[in-house]
Amino acid sequence: MQRKMTGGRLAFIIVNLLFLVIIASTMIVPFWNAIAESFSSNLGSMQPGILMWPRDFSLSGYKTIWTVLDLWQPFENSVIVTVIGTVLHVFLSALAGYALAQPSLPGRRVLTIFILITMMIPFEAIMIPFTWPSRNLDCSTRCWH
Question: What is the pLDDT of residues 89-112, one digit of tens each?
Answer without folding.
Answer: 999 999 999 988 998 989 999 999
